[in-house]
Specification:
The complex is a heterodimer. Chain A is mostly helical. Chain A has 3 helices and 2 strands. The chains are: A mainly alpha, B alpha+beta. The interface between A and B is large, with 57 and 66 residues.
Chain lengths: 118, 326
């Protein structure tokens, strides 16, 4: 078994380091969310730059939590890939199809002959 | 006996049996796959939220304006501060959890117990805060008027600050009382009547010449459209059909009803996960105190609930981003 007694040295230093990074990222997110700087309102690939920053920071936090706290980094390649890749592929597909369709419905509402706000 | 054993010729290979290709115990592996399936459930919810948001991309409520309460600070506009605090509490309880797992590896029973206890406290504070958020959301603050087309009209003053209905409307005495089972047909009832009628709102609006109406539609800058005084009067007189106070699954004073529905579903489902996480943590906490894992010489159970608890935190990171920030 991988978890024999005494084979584990303490990881507390790394845990506190990860916590610090997570806190800083969250604080940055909240500050950006409150100020909403004008310069980040530019659209990049269908979305505001600010929103892209939020999403990337979120994925970074998710990576840290999974790898450091859930100890994914210590698992075998097989387990890591079967959990992470499965999730990522399915979620990407789901996101693409639903956001695309949502945008389509919006266009229909906007340019259709019927008024939805009467 | 030797003759009954069938050799497959795959001994020593990963698929030959008798080996652990993933090098984890059955329980831990299954916890990982449960987490994967649960992650897909949550992403289904969040993707559906994205669908509805893209569908109403030019009229979606602005989260900063909806969640702007902080305990003991009445009337102070505090966008997102409290949610940020909640996020910190959850991340911190994740840290104490991982410290408990770490102490478990070194077989330090007392340390595990203390860290588990802190984790449970963090979880309880988080769920309590979520309940408080729900209370504010359901109660509402400003009140609004609903139009024939199901749109929401809100009231602002000249500077664009929101104005509560109670600040300019006085309820005229009316004959109509709430229809309950006991005073009408026993098989139908109705929701509590709003404090004011549309007529009250129109009368009050006419008296205050500085008031304007704010519609759901977002401008280019991402702010809500404010109508001119004449348009406001017109809209109110011709389109208003009802007064909305607070939010539930049918009506929502903040804007699109779907926003409220998704808020209740997603944060509710997440809150339910936190709740079950707390229950699991409490069970494991008592097992630690009783010395169950000391006897078993392995604290792997702490690791397994730890995985679940981190997952709850992980989901919150996404909910926080997509519900409150983006």
């Amino acid at each position: 078994m991988a978890h024999e007694i005494g084979h584990h040295e303490s990881n507390t230093k790394r845990i506190w380091k990860v916590f610090t990074i997570l806190s800083i990222v969250t604080i940055v997110e909240v500050i950006l969310g409150i100020i909403k700087p004008e310069s980040l309102n530019a659209k990049v690939a269908f979305m505001k730059l600010l929103n892209w920053i939020f999403i990337i920071l979120t994925l970074y936090k998710a990576y840290l939590i999974t790898w450091a706290f859930m100890h994914m980094e210590g698992e075998t390649k097989g387990l890591r890939r079967s959990v992470v890749w499965t999730g990522i592929f399915l979620i990407c597909y789901l996101m693409f199809i639903l956001l695309n369709e949502g945008d389509y419905v919006f266009e229909v509402y906007k340019s259709g002959y019927k008024s939805w706000d009467f | 006996m030797d003759t009954t054993v069938i050799k497959t010729g795959t001994e020593g290979n990963a698929w030959g049996g008798d080996s652990q290709p993933l090098k984890v115990s059955y329980g831990k592996m299954m916890m990982w796959f449960f987490i994967l399936s649960d992650a897909l459930t949550f992403s289904g919810f969040l993707a559906a939220y994205g669908f509805s948001r893209f569908k109403f991309i030019n009229s979606w409520p602005i989260a900063d304006e909806v969640f702007n309460h902080f305990p003991f600070m009445h009337g102070v506009d505090a966008p997102m501060y409290y949610v940020a605090l909640m996020t910190f509490i959850l991340i911190f309880s994740s840290v104490t959890m991982v410290l408990a797992v770490d102490a478990g590896h070194q077989m330090k029973k007392n340390k595990v117990a203390i860290y588990m206890f802190l984790t449970i406290i963090g979880g309880i504070i988080f769920v309590g805060s979520q309940a408080w958020e729900w209370k504010n959301f359901i109660k509402g603050e400003y009140g609004a008027v609903e139009t024939k087309g199901g749109q929401i009209l809100q009231f602002v003053d000249k500077e664009g600050h929101r104005v509560k209905l109670s600040e300019f409307v006085t309820a005229a005495p009316i004959e109509r009382t709430q229809h309950r089972r006991k005073n009408g047909l026993w098989f139908v009832g109705e929701k509590e009547l709003p404090t004011y009628t549309v007529q009250d709102v129109i009368t009050g609006f006419k008296k205050r010449s500085d008031l304007l109406i704010r519609t759901q539609i977002l401008t280019e800058e991402g702010e809500k459209t404010i109508l001119s005084r004449a348009d406001s009067m017109n809209k109110l007189a011709n389109n208003a059909v009802g007064v909305v106070e607070g939010a539930n699954l049918i009506k929502n004073e903040y804007g699109s009803t779907l926003f409220a529905n998704f808020f209740f579903f997603i944060t509710g489902f997440h809150g339910f996960h936190v709740f079950s996480g707390i229950v699991l943590n409490i069970i494991i906490f008592f097992n630690v105190l009783l010395g169950t894992y000391e006897k078993r010489k392995s604290y792997e159970m702490v690791e397994k609930v730890g995985l679940y608890w981190h997952f709850v935190d992980l989901v919150w990171v996404f909910v926080f981003t997509f519900f409150y920030l983006v």
